[in-house]
Amino acid sequence: MERTAVPGRLGDRLRWRTAEVTGRRVESATAVTLTLDVPGWPGHLAGQHVDVRLTAEDGYSTQRSYSIASAPDGRNLDLTVQRTPGGEVSPYLVDELVPGDRLELRGPVGGWFIWRQQQTEPIVLVAGGSGLVPLMCMIRAREAAGSRAPFRLLYAARTPSDLLYRSELRQGAPGLDTTYLYSREAPEDSPRPPGRISPEDLARGGWPSDFEPTCYVCGPTGFVEKTAAYLVLLGHAPERVRTERFGHSGG
């Protein structure tokens, strides 16, 4: 369907804003969550992302896109950033940025990979690594809205030490079921040995296709493509499988 642009709103989203870091929380050895105060923030939907721009004293500028982790909450938002080895932007955000520092961002961006509180159908969330971030935004938005839509999360990580938001997920929320999948090292009490995601994992941890759930899959390109193909193989309608992927972009 062709969409008609709304000049004022579109221009507002594309405008660069100065954000101040007001909080920093370590999520793992390679990831942190940055809380930002963004004056004039227009608000966001669960699943959207922002563009972050850094400019050096000599005028050199570079930018990267990061998913929003927090539920809509006025002018504040959380970005969870994972350090990319050899990266240009993520090491600075993860290792050097502290409360009081400022950066530029614009957004929100994205209109397809989103969850709205009006949705009442079952939801399957499948995350690979830091692909959990926009899905966590959906989980938090659901809880903030008091939605009763049933959510099932399959979270694939390399090892237990790589998990993000571990305390929050372990605590759980009504109507949210979480399944952990480890590819390299699993805890001793894990009912599943380490290995890549499989159709059997999706069948056990997700909703049956005849429930007509909406499925959101986010992670590295290979993970997303394989998972989406498995979901269709299990009978899920392709138009109900929404994907977002990330690859090597210089970090």
Automatic annotation (TrEMBL):
Superkingdom of the organism of origin: Bacteria
SUPFAM superfamilies attached to this UniProt entry: Ferredoxin reductase-like, C-terminal NADP-linked domain, Riboflavin synthase domain-like
InterPro entries: Cbr1-like_FAD-bd_dom, FAD-bd_FR_type, Flavoprot_Pyr_Nucl_cyt_Rdtase, FNR_nucleotide-bd, MRET, OxRdtase_FAD/NAD-bd, Riboflavin_synthase-like_b-brl
Gene3D superfamilies registered for this protein in UniProt: Nucleotide-binding domain of ferredoxin-NADP reductase (FNR) module, Translation factors
A GO MF label: 2 iron, 2 sulfur cluster binding
UniProt keyword terms in alphabetical order: 2Fe-2S, Iron, Iron-sulfur, Metal-binding
Keyword S-adenosyl-L-methionine attributed: no
FAD-binding FR-type domain boundaries: 14-115
CDD domains: FNR_iron_sulfur_binding_3
Residue spans crossing the bilayer: none
Sequence segments annotated as region (Disordered): 184-205
Entry cofactors: FAD
Name the record gives this protein: Ferredoxin-NADP reductase
Protein's organism: Actinacidiphila glaucinigra
